[in-house]
Amino acid sequence: MKVILIGFMGSGKTTVSNLLSDQLNLPVTDLDQAIIDHSQMSIPQIFKRSGEIGFRQIEHQVLLETLQSKDGILATGGGTPLRADNRLKLQEDPAPVILLHASPEETARRIQGSHDRPIANQLDVIGLGKLLAKRQSKYEECADITIDTDGRSPQSIADEIKDIMSN
User: Fold this and answer.
1) Is 11 annotated as a binding residue?
2) Pairing assessment for the beta strands 28-30 and 145-148 based on DSSP bridges
3) Which leading EC class covers this enzyme (predicted)?
4) 87 labeled part of a ligand binding site
């Protein structure tokens, strides 16, 4: 991998990774999509059939396979850094791990109306804030750089990451 994007749901990982892919002519792997392709089920279906523990096991397996690629951009799922073994693998990868951070209010605005986020579907802004606070230290543990995405266009974030990668 050339760069790895992590962060809470709705922080912009997928959108920014696709912009970077276009700018840098690098393939992008969206880990959630790779999980769907691997399991031949949607994420809500995986949660319904196997629960969060089963989903996280599939996520770990697909992460390990994806990190073997030497070229490209990886956009992880919002929960990928929850497992200690995933954090370790992200830290060990030579690619910079960039944490995209959004406030709970911004996250709620971005994911409003989304039905493919089993963990967030029942949460309001306060619930999202509590979940983000619970995860924040795990994100920071494996991040090399943090970028605040509130009030910024995905293009400006992609441009900042491109600048980081060229230094």
Assistant:
1) yes
2) unpaired
3) transferase
4) no
**Residue 89 assigned to a binding site:** no
Residue range 114-126, pLDDT digits in tens? 656 556 566 788 8
Superfamily in which the 3-166 domain is placed by CATH: P-loop containing nucleotide triphosphate hydrolases (3.40.50.300)
Consult the annotation and say whether 166 binds a ligand: no
Residue 13 assigned to a binding site: yes
Each residue's pLDDT tens digit, 75-134: 999 999 999 999 999 999 999 999 999 999 998 888 776 656 556 566 788 888 999 999
Give the C-alpha distances (Å, rounded to integers) separating 124 from 56, 94, 114: 23, 37, 13
3-state secondary structure of 102: coil
12: left (phi over 0), alpha (psi -120 to 50) or beta: left
Average pLDDT over residues 23-37: 95
Element (H, E) at 101: strand 97-101
Query: Does the annotation flag 135 for ligand binding?
Result: yes
- Asked whether 138 and 8 are in contact (CB, 8 A), the reply is no
Centre a 10 Å sphere on the Cβ of residue 69 and count the other Cβ atoms it contains.
13
152 is in an annotated binding site: yes
7 is annotated as contributing to ligand binding: no
